[in-house]
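Cast an eye over my tokenised protein here and flag anything odd:

===
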Amino acid sequence: MKKFFCYAAFLLVVLSGVRLSGQSYRNFREEYDNIKERARLRLGPLRVIPVFRLSEVGRDSNVYFREEGGEVIPDFTATLSPEARGYWLVGSSVIVSVTENPEYLFYAKEKELRAFTNSFSTGLRLLVLRSFSLAADYHILSHVRRATSELDRRIRDTATGAGAGFFFETPRGTAVGFTGSIEDFRYKDVASDAPDDIYATSLDRRETAAAFDLYYRVFSQSFFFTTVGWTRYEFVFPESAWRDARSLEVSGGFRFPFLGRARGMISLGWKSFKPDSAERKPFSGLVAATDVSLRFGRLGINLGYARDNAFSYNESAYYYVDGRARAGLSFYVAPFLRIDGNLQFGTMAYPEPQEVWYGGEVFVIDRREDVNRTFSVGPVVRVVGTVGLGLTYNFYKRTSNAPGFNVRRNFVGAFLTYEF
């Protein structure tokens, strides 16, 4: 009995590290076998997978993404992010998981931009009667980054929430079920101590979501999926209550294996976004989340397309439609060396008129549209296994029909990758 209470207490503290999403769903047996294969390090009952991420180590020519020709500020930066994923396999029908991920953002000169964050998630997953998979998760995920295409600087974004899922799984790997979640999003400008943070005022919100998911195995490791999801958006600050809304999304696609010559996912769908306020313009149209990598001998190809609406931090704007298309090419010169090149083109379209302050004047832009272009190129050297050390030159340019938003940025630096 004492042992039972110890296990129960542990399970209550460590509730599921599995993020519940139809597009990333793994059946119980697949995840269980993957943990046994990858988690070789043992700490008592825990199987541990350590990961160390190093990114954006180099010189940024415009750390505040200020207007081209203005007072831009360069600096040397680095992001260090160690992570440890722990799993406890209880028998053959219980997976308990916990993930800890501290992250430090370094700036050489702009010390007010330096930041430390920590992300934590816990979880529990059960297999009942060999066919029913039950999961729950709790997480606090915090980063300092440009979380959306619109942000003109790195902002601290924190997502705190919990989710649950119930799925019926067949021996062949097909799964059908329901998920639900509640997520609180908070934003803060790390370089400012102002009490009226515009990012928090405009973007802090709660999202309550529910979805029906179907996963159907097509080949040995590939799946067709479809998701029908509903989301409710409720903003924290009273002055932003006019942003409250709800959405309904239907999407489907094809998920390739996690490993192999073809990896990634093709996802296309339709979304209806309806504001509570009748004065605000709704959104209805195509949404996408596609990212596919292919390997043919010495040649690697990466293609991506994403489209959705996102809330704007601009006080006089509501949302924008964010669309991004990407194409990448990798040439493996030798078993230890490859050359990467990537090109991305994106647009941010604002459906409602908005006010823009520039040079002490107010401009009313009827249909603002920003165009983003990103180009990167550089070599990657294999260190060991699939781990590689890369060097990159990254060029970013944004042009807009609204004054003050034409931005140019160059970055030269290094990074670690686990996909060589």
